[in-house]
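Hi all, a correction to my earlier message: I attached the wrong file for Aminopeptidase N. Here's the right sequence:
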Amino acid sequence: MHRMDASLRFSPPFVSLITLLFVLSYGTVACQAQPAGNGGPTPAHPEIDVQHYDFRVTLSDRSDEITGEATVRLRLTTDTLTAIRLDLDDPQTDNVKETGMTVTAVEEEGRSVSFRQVNDHVVIEPEGQLKEGEERTFTIRYSGTPADGLIIGSNRHGDRTFFGDNWPNRARHYVPVVDHPSDKATVAWTVDAPSRYDVVANGERLGQTDHGDRRVTRYRTEATLPTKVMVFGAAEFVVDSLGVQGDIPMQSWVYPEDRGPAMRDLQVAPRIVRFFEGNIAPYPFAKLANVQSTTRYGGMENASAIFYSESAMADGEPSTGLVAHEIAHQWFGNTVTEADWPHLWLSEGFATYLEKLYLEYAEGAQEMRESMASARNQALAFQRQNPDEPLVDTTYTDPAQLLTSNPYLKGAWVLHMLRFELGDKAFWSTLQTFYERKKSGNATTADFQSAAEDVSGKSLDIFFEQWTRRAGYPILDIEWHYSDQNEAVELTVEQVQRSPVFDVPLEIGLAIGDTEDLATLDITKRKETFTVDVPAPVSDVTVDPHTWLLGEWDVHSASK
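and the right structure:
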């Protein structure tokens, strides 16, 4: 999921009404959030573990009402249950229309099962004892008009479209699920739609059958996914091949009117996949469909079927950064998924930084530095406005509150600084190790720290404490002077921020004639003085010349 502006926090209604420039050097990107009035976070359901969803959804051009059938196979993790809860939006009426889902039947092995709908849950009450460890399969039949989640409307050309738009916990508006990233499952989609629509969804297409004016399309994925990226889309598309990477087919699914600019944007996808495969691991899904979409908030990294903002695919501006960001999510976010919302940076920070690493590879180190400098400005602007908010924020009451620059830009900066701390080889090895350990499952920040420590052989407690669990950043006052007598530069560095002292490596550049020598100072105290031997007089000192530190500083010569 890509943001358009990450330096501020927006309430979801405001996000949905504006489009802002994401000032990171690379292209226009899309913004997404949870709508207001959604009832806050959807909790995990640790008493059950969903193994597989099989969704059948019937669409109509006569109305926005859908008919659904969901077969849910789950495993019980406790003996204390008397009922099973799944998240599903209750029917409700406002002044305009009726929305929500009405459940008409629940069955288990062909037998009717008692159920009730309450507080946006379908509560299933089977007969007999529910035993820990056993698997149960229930089929839920329902219908209604989605209030959210499945966005039904018209695209920029006035044509009718249907797109899943689930982040963070909006799948429950049209399918019964455990709508929390900790419960991952495989998924199959059967979509029955008017025959003029092409249907794309997660996984491999198993078949497509036309019956008169109706078309039934089936997809299935063998990969376990969080519900935030389980989707289908239906529209009138033109589908083109982008080639094959290994045995992975890559396609573009775009509106016919936008085929030219969209294809120019998406041609880069195979090269991006090759870069990530070469540095992380093989691409984790059976296909990569790049889909122009019409959703409420913009693009989303849906597993194997990425939905891009319709405007981003049609504006004629390069979208390389956007495409790289969403493809990076196929490894981090979709395959390795945050265990809970406070660890969102393991998805968004990783995708943001991997986007930049691809652009560094494709466009050079200077582009990377400029991009990270811009990201630093925005991340620090947010920190100044929210001085007590850490990267891993456990105080949230709604996942949408986490949709700030912290998981995106500060998250990317934490990875950037870790790269400087470990070196490129150990950094990439850390990403590979973390991915291999946690693929198909969930991860926390502690899991990532453990991978980094195991690879590097270093204790990284201080690094992760100050950058992920604590708020703030270093603000440095640096005074320097050159000593002819000692043939050295003396630098006094004082940390003047209110937050506790940071322990950081600080790269400095020493101007000696027409060259610049580099030195790294290990900053560990509130105030300390360093002496750096030099071969000739120093005329100037620059701080962080290669953009490795998230912080602010003022540097001045003692002789001035």
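Sorry for the mix-up. DSSP finds ten helices and 29 strands in the chain.
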